[in-house]
């Protein structure tokens, strides 16, 4: 960590060039030869990425940023804040501290937080940043987290782990055993030091695959940000052997959409109908959860088809996802498409349909954009249909 980067003139240069093309800047002569040009460029690039993702860090004076990839891989402040609502108690140890965003928010809920980071340079950088952020209740430890956990020799209210995928696992099916640390193999050791573990995985992990590897899972949180699933959070409680709760959350700019259900618990079958007045498309967190029947039953909606995952109703209801008014339902036939859609502008979505959006646009010369939303899908009678809609939400 080169503290010369905190020179006010260098910091001023960094701030002036936020958003500037790094490739263009790289061709310029370094105006501050006492600091490597690549180091200054990295600060500009990383801070640019932090502007929207990490506004607290961005707005704080004398923050030092790690390599760009660390900023890309770190939690956003919004998802870190959500994580903090899961934990409680007096103590938490983060075995994979990274840039420390999660710990910053854990420390607002937990009185004692420990940040473990195997990379000593990153650990020192994070400790410096916590001082700038005026955080007093986080201790930083550099080195192997298992060794740190053993040496501290205490019982924690929570252990938090964000394993990273091993480089030699690229191209393989995503499994927790392909990550470092290997949570399934170390679970018994972790339970000696805490009864509650929260582990984060990338959205790529299949829920059933994760459940086959992990024991004692009490809840799985599926967290989306602006309708893009960002992370899966697995609550693991020692000796727990009950039902698994699925908690879906979509963090939007002005609201939070949430929908919870118990995995594999369903006493009623889904209801189906032809398209009615309104159309509902679940948000990405619900889609990832696989709770397609549960969301329809919970909101008293009818499904269009078992595999379409679109819902309909006569009356308008609040719903965690996109909502549309159905203006027209047409058959997927040449005459109908030519009359209503050919060479027109529309937003096209396919659900349980044999052709891709790209194929449909090309075939019928449908231009992208506008205020019309078209869903190419299959109804309960297995007919290929097109729903022409106006967006309500």
From TrEMBL:
Record-annotated PG-1098 ferredoxin-like domain positions: 278-320
Organism domain of life: Bacteria
SUPFAM superfamilies according to UniProt: S-adenosyl-L-methionine-dependent methyltransferases
Domain THUMP-like, chain residue ranges per copy: 321-391
Organism: Flavobacterium granuli
The protein's name in its UniProt record: Uncharacterized protein
InterPro entries: PG_1098_Fer, SAM-dependent_MTases_sf, Thump-like
